[in-house]
Amino acid sequence: MRLDTTDKQLINLYQRDLSVCERPYQEMARRLDIPEEEVIDRLQSLRNHHVISRVGPVFEHHRAGASILAAVAAPPEQQDLVAARINRAPGVNHNYAREHTYNLWFVMTAPDEDTLDERLDELEHQLRLPMLRLPMVAQYHIDLGFDIDWEALA
Amino acid sequence: MNTSTDYLAVVPEISGRGAISAWGLLRLRQHLEKGLPLTPRPYLTLAEQTGLTEQEVMTAVDQWQAQGLIKRLGLVVKHRTLGYTANAMVVWDVPDSWLRSVAETISGAPFVTLCYQRPRRLPDWPYNLFCMIHGVDRQRVLAQIDNLIASAHLEAFPHAVLFSTKAYRQCGGRYVSND
Fold it and tell me: In chain B, which residue ranges form alpha helices assigned H by DSSP?
């Protein structure tokens, strides 16, 4: 999808601080000087093209339930297979291959710590691979949606 | 550590009308995790989906923001689609006494989007400080890391750069929804 100036403005202005009011898209429309309907259509289109995943609240992990970063060392030739198995485990919302012996990194979430531990135990048993469990100890910097460097992307 | 029943402890009061239904708030959480509806009155849509009133939904979202349960309200960008394909997790082994000051230095770099302390898992995993960098170009990200190390004098702390090579899944946390 080719983004025009208005799409970029939407992304520049509204990664955070969306106002909570009856017609939030109308407020965005006023600021961008386009009809409310066009704001909604553009957001729909950005979502359909996977430029945004949603217009959302982003919940604070530690307050919204239990979550953990974990990694496994999969034999390189089985990486895709193991990744698919990880994706099938309940509560996995991020799963990336990374350049390391521990080559699959995923985030698992659950309603509470006990459920999370059970799910990890079950997955570890299923995969029979060494697993790192790396819960967050302290948070120093939160992603509040960084400014997109459109020039670097062009 | 907070538990998943936190949403019950943060049930907002609306003056004159009593507390909002806890069941309704759980349903609201489930719907909100999928994002704000793209309808002219998204809070009214959420109200219709949860059995709350539009005002109750807005009050709940306001309070959850104030209490930090919601950390950000806005467009959630998929950086990979936009072209941010050089996504690096940089991990550091920092003595505990230095951790806070190093974490603050790293967090101050404009290209660092997240910075967390996590436990070491010796002998396999000696690193206790994690940061994320979303970059457009691998060489540029490596240069940014080198500059950070030089300018903040981080040479003494062993580090590793783990670029991501493939995204098998990337979506928002689903803590209470069933799908």
Answer: 6-9, 22-32, 42-50, 54-67, 79-82, 96-107, 138-152
